[in-house]
Amino acid sequence: MEEGSPKHLSLPHVGREEVKNFFVINAGVFLLSLGVYFFKFPNNFTTGGVSGLAIILGRLIPSPVLSPATMMSVINIALLVVGFIFLGRGFGFWTAYCSVMFSFETWLFEKVLPMETPFTDQPLLELCFAIMLPAVGSALLFNNNASSGGTDIVAMILKKYTSITDIGKALFVSDGLIALSSCFIFGMRTGLFSLLGLFLKAFVVDSVIESINLCKFFAIVTSKPQEICDYIIQDMNRSSTVIDAMGAYSHAGCKVVLIACRRGEAIRLRQRCKVLDPQCFMFITNTSEIIGKGFRTV
């Protein structure tokens, strides 16, 4: 490069996967904000976490300025500062980003679409949406190695600086205390709905994550492994593993083809295997944790 010539700045390459993850993460934050603002706040469902704490503090400290949405933003920002102080570079970028966006979107909903009362007079119906929308949103975040911050930051700090081994149980206990306190602050009906929502939340999040990542694992016992492998490689653009086997009753030699694939691919593979080898024997199981090329990376 000649002296005095401008240096070209090379921008980092952003691939399709990074763009997809960005949109998925933002969709998760949006669903989280929808469920919390439109269904949890109006019904005072305190199912734990920062949103539940904000609802309780909003009732204990009545103020037109410190609404639950504003209170949640203040708590999230405070936890972000604490996280950066105690965790430093170990504090994930996406956790900070999602925490800020979650607080901002909830605050924006409050300013644009103020909610004085719940949508309906059916608290159980509202609880379903208050659990389902944030659960799907959280699952999308967790599936992309992100989180909405809040009590997750507390978990990171406890994990780093204490000897507590089961952080999940400790956070569940704290969420339980928040939900239980709503019985005394908002009445027994709201408190029981909050406790019910707390228990449902854990199951729904796990179920959504498993559903998102659900794949099929095939173990195909066949006498025509080459034909099946050709279809897998040429038509499915995947690979497989072939191992030697022997029938316990007939003592005849055979091959077992092992392959993991998506649900849509599984239907086509199952049909094709029966065409190529009508006598083949297939074990097909569900799996949500496949790590490797073509699936997920650690």
Layout of strands and helices, then pairs:
Layout: H1 16-43, H2 49-60, H3 68-87, H4 93-112, H5 123-143, H6 151-161, H7 167-185, H8 188-213, E1 215-222, H9 225-234, E2 241-246, E3 253-261, H10 263-276, E4 281-287
Antiparallel strand pairs: 1-3, 1-4, 2-3
Helix pairs in contact: 1-4, 1-5, 2-3, 2-7, 3-4, 3-6, 5-8, 7-8, 9-10
- Indicate the overall shape: elongated
Task: Please give the radius of gyration in angstroms.
Answer: 25 Å
- First-last Cα distance: 40 Å
Beta-strand percentage range: 5-15%
Portion in helices: 55-70%
> Care to count the β-strands?
4
Q: What does this molecule look like?
A:
The two termini are 40 Å apart. The protein has 2 domains: 16-212, no CATH class; 214-287, Alpha-Beta Plaits (2-Layer Sandwich), CATH 3.30.70. Helix content is 61%, strand content 10%. The chain is an alpha+beta fold. The chain has helices at 16-43, 49-60, 68-87, 93-112, 123-143, 151-161, 167-185, 188-213, 225-234, 263-276; strands at residues 215-222, 241-246, 253-261, 281-287. Helix 1 (16-43) packs across helix 4, helix 3 runs antiparallel to helix 4 and helix 5 (123-143) packs parallel to helix 8 (188-213). Strand 2 (241-246) and strand 3 form a beta hairpin. A 4-stranded antiparallel beta sheet has the order 2-3-1-4.
